[in-house]
Amino acid sequence: MAALLDDSLVIVLAGGAGERLYPLTKERAKPAVYFGGPYRIIDFALSNCINSGLRRIFIATQYKSLSLNRHIRMGWSIVSEELGEFVEILPPQKRVSEHWYQGTADAVYQNLYSIMRENPRYLIVLSGDHVYKMDYARMLRLHQQRNAAVTLATIEVPLADSDRFGVIAIDETERVTGFQEKPKQPPSIPGSPEFALASMGVYVFDTDILVRALEADATQPTTHDFGKDIIPALIHQSPVYSYRFYDENKKASKYWRDIGTLDAYFDANMDLCQVNPEFNLYDPEWPLRTYQPQAPPAKFVFAETGKRCGQALDSVISPGCIVSGSTILGSVLCPNVRVHSFCHIERCILMPGVRVGRHARIKRAIIDRDVLIPRGAVIGFNPEEDRKRHTVTELGVVVVTEDDDPLVEPISEDALRIEAEDDGR
To answer: For the chain, how far is it from start to end, CA to CA, in angstroms?
Structure first.
């Protein structure tokens, strides 16, 4: 197994603009968006690599990559260069054309020079914007045992929901016989007519076969995409197999999320606040790594029961946070958030560096990094005002950025009197 891993190279595709996550992707790439407190989305694919024993990793970036590059530099220098290991950024270089990356396959094709210098026998291609736990070594071993040219990681999805995915057709031996992107009439799994097999965007290739396929595709007027062009072409030329997703999350149902919309992103974060969340951040056998800022422990101040009490219930609170005489319910606070007194925050995501002024009331909202919420602000309670001032999703989640001007309502005389009394004590 060690020799098999040494013969393998990983390339993580992390250049996506993440347009459906806008405005969270206004200043950063989708893989750099925060998730679950201190983590970035790309941390889950990279943690899978390290936990699988894969330590030669390229990360192909493109769109607004500054924060992503900085995160990788500061948080992922955990491998030994002396042993030939690396986690390295590959920015667009226009080495083979005058265009930026035209698709997922083109992103790999334009970096063939860097890939071939490492002389890998197997190339593992990953997306940097999914949340899941997976041992790629299992998939790699099965790829070798089957003498496959390509192996695709797949997950069972209800037939009714499969039009959102790339769906594959297989025979009884798990060999892939067809691949369709978001089909209206998807093929079902043999023996399971109510389910289809969706591609997870995780591929293992024999490098020499992939190189030939990429070179052939580069000369054709295609979309230069793995799902639309490369895989369908290889199905009829080489043995292509499905690998059923084996979840390292250790839950009853398999967890793999493409948190590509604001509502999906919000719901996935809110799930982490549950007593028994679907995604387990706390498994010591599958550590999730990230860059941890040098921050003190979280702190909750003022314990005046029935008056001013700093508390967080059913919430994820990161290092460096201070909750001062306010109530946090079912929310995710990223590092170094400050919540001042007399606030009520319910079912929210607060990005790093957020400051919330006194008497603010916020519900079902995502507050972007370093936003200052003014004293007396009201967010998530007045849909008409929220839509005038902020981005609001289809399901009513409010997204607040630095350029927004939140609604501020007058503070009642009783609240001002209590504030003065408490400050006086």
So the answer is: 66
